[in-house]
Amino acid sequence: MSKSQKWIAGGMTVFMGIVLYAFFALKYPYHLHFQEQYQLFESTWSYFAKVAWLPGGLSDWMGRLVTQFFYYAPLGAFLVPVLLLGIQLLTFAIGPEKNLFSYAVSFVPSFLLAAFFCDENALVGGAVALLLALAGVALSQFVRRNGPRHILEAVLVPLLYWACGGIAVVFILVTAIREGKRPGAKAVPVLTAMVVLAVLCPLAARHIYPYPLERLAFGIHYFRYHNLVPALLWLSALSVVLAAALSSFRLFRKNWLPGLGAWVLALAFGILLVLRTADFSKEEWMRYDFMVRMEMWNRIMMSADRHNPDSPKTVSCLNLALAMTGRMPDSQFSYFQNGPEGLLPSFVGDYTNPVSTGEIYWHLGMVNTAQRYAFEAQEAIPDFQKSARCYKRLAETNIVNGDWPIARKYLRALQHARFYKKWAGETLALLDSGDIFERRPELGKARDFRLTEHDFMFSETEMDSMLGLLHVEHPSNSIALDYLMAWTLLRKDLDRFVEFISLVNAPVMPKAYQEALLLRWVHTHEDFNGLPPYLSPVFAQRITRFIADYQARKPEAQMRKEYGDTYWFYYYYRYRS
Amino acid sequence: MKRTPLLLALLLAACSPKVHDAASSEALPAIYPDYVGVTIPASIAPLDFQLEGADALDVRITAPDGTQLRSYGNAYTCFPEKKWARLLEKSVGDSLQVSVSGLQGDKWTTYRSFGIFVSPDAIDYGLTYRLLEPGYEIYSHMGIYERELSSFRQRALLENTQFDGCVNCHASMRGKPEDFSLHIRGAHGATLLSLDGELNAYETRTDSTLGFCVYPYWHPSGRYIAYSTNNTRQGFHVQPDKIIEVFDLASDLQIYDVQKNQLISAPQVKQEGLWETFPVFSADGKTLYFTRAAQISIPSELPLSHYNLMKVSFDPETGTIGEDVETVIDAHAMGKSITFPRPSYDGKYLMYTLCDYGTFSIWHHESDLWLLDLETGQTRSIQEVNSADTDSYHNWSTNSRWFVFSSRRDTGSYTRLYIAHFGEDGQAGKPFMLPQRNPAAYYEDLFYSYNVPDFVTGPVPLDRIRAQKAVNASERVPFGFRRSR
User: What is the pTM of this model?
Assistant: First the structure.
């Protein structure tokens, strides 16, 4: 390439880096946090040996090494473009022709990978595997003499299979194209040997590793769900081969305009693909989950004020924030509510839902349930990894339950994880000194809120009984009371609500409770004579208007505009059990 | 060239701390695992240990003929396997004397020496067991493993990385490695049966039975396998001391005739209003022991669920289950519950677990091992081996001179394996933890529990790839059914 073309090419790469960074740092950062929390990268030799011994294990280990930095999303957003642009530069470097057109084409694999990373189950190890395979091609290119190069290529096939897994096939295909084009080179025997080796690798691995052949061939740790082959990753791998093949044609060798055109096309394709594969509703839920994890209660409510959450997962996060800040009895129905599922979501045996639902039980003082949810979520991680977030919670629940030897086990493992070792070390020291509950008041609070007088089996159908007992055993557990009242309100069970109202000991009856009591009053009385003094006449007038408008069959949109912040609107227009 | 190893050895010796000015202590050393005064077989792997709080150790083990084996320098012992084996060979029927000096801070202490008795009773080749995280409903990585007892070698027989599913109950035919039953749950659910090394995947549900075959036990002839079939559920305590309960909503017994590929059932072992489970054959194969409880309302009445030990005759010639079911131990009257009955292969004893209620003794802290003398009918708690925490799942060695069991005494949550000698006089020796190289670190890093341990007389000839194909295939050999005459 000419000097000016090199400048343009450099500009393309820098521009792409900025775009990718901006996307992952500003539009998609919680996917990075999400990735980080479902692994526990331990800086130990035994961890390396355990991960790296599998085919593709080295790239998996390197991917996990990178993923641990996603703990800080801006750092993760920096590392992802570095990885993707590394692949782009290597794709260009291994191509036989160096022109602006081939440079533009070299972006395609990285765009596909950027789209791949929009999936929360995409593992970084897959991209690292591709990077290593390309590095293998680049390495063999350095050797000019046929004999040594062929030996190196033959050695690299099993070596790359071990390091990258099935994606090592990229090395074989690109090398095949290159060797086939070499004038006078005896390509056929070399290629035959490489293909034989490539086929033998997974077949031989089958006798060493306890995995089915298809997983040994298509990768063990490219994607969290092992029984799915990640199409975008493999398309990216194939596009590297195509890019190498395309750049072999001596098109547009000097002229830079077609190269720029190809780059614009590639860029448009990449942006469209990323926008199409990105799931911003998941990103929104991950954002709420992250804020719950970090206990950013006010930030959750500020987010909800800007945009009302509407999925059960996000609403449950909002409700927890309302309870944690004491605003639930007054403000719960100022926000969208989608029934009891938005308060205490049902148990789902996957690796995501129990994590955030477990946070609710933790703050309620249902420590055993929080422990179970953290444990189950971790067990459900499809690729059998451990979760740093779950380990941390399990350490906490075991401390609170007095199972300190088990807590120490989790803490010692966390001591090997870069971003958790400080907390783990301090916690271990507090356990040793015996003043853990004084120095970690959140643990002391959880210990105090536990049920100790009543033992029963957790039951989602008897949630009101469990919440009631939590409050009865520990009257200072106001969150349990808020949840109990909210549970009956969201289920529209006004009889149970009235049964429990005597537990409420507030100077002024909270707004949602007044609305519910007035609604029941209206259901059971003909007028407001004898209305208890803790029910405001202002609310009584408002419910009168509401009933009149409701009976006049005003459109729902208008009712929402006028009464959307009331329990009455929820009662008549939301949630059908 | 020959000087290099010598130089290295000298250098290492120079770096190793030496015992000097050691204080004498009359106390026994607080070693982990606790091997003080245990009885071991001659073919056991080195009993490596560490001393609590010590940065370095100097341990000398002396055989009755004066031969010594020494381990020094590290914070844990590291006895060479071959030398250890030779030392044990020389000590059969007698005791090894173990002298421990430990460096704590900058001071050496030499503790009172203790003995380890090397029993003349042989132990089987190895153990099989399941390793899994002690959890609730969902499972992650797990597998069935084989451990050679004379070394530290552990080998995976089958892991759930090979298919989607949970690797469940595994039982060999009186330690015979070629014959075993292994149940897989989940998407590729099946019961793998290996008979003389031939492996097949079976569908064990029939129209006439409750469900899958669950807890297996082989008949001594190898022709029959007794199974329970259980409709199992789980519940989760909200109180801190308890975690999980597993209970049956229904359960029956059935016997699989290997030759005829038929399940045999009889009304007396699948009674309405009664739950039967954990079937086992007596050593002569003419009696079927099992546990039975009256049906109750679950989960509210779970603490009232008390399983008795029962027996019924069995005719191996015709595969006929006897008519009269007898109560052997009335645990209900004691306010207790019996699980996992295991007759010794010499026909003299039956070991079982006793807990407060239910069938899931492995999560009950109060669970202890008990012994029934089948000749006298006397039963007692095996105090020699029981601990303050869960002592549960157990199996006998093929000569009935050893037994293996799982216990939570170590951390309270993770079950570890212990092996105890069982004398002709019916007394058990002090149990020893399954040896590991650097055991403190090994067990500290191990987030798995040992589950369903059993002895095997040789390496299990399981072709992993074949087993994987059989499980992943959609075809299953269906079990037939017949009623007991």
Answer: 0.93
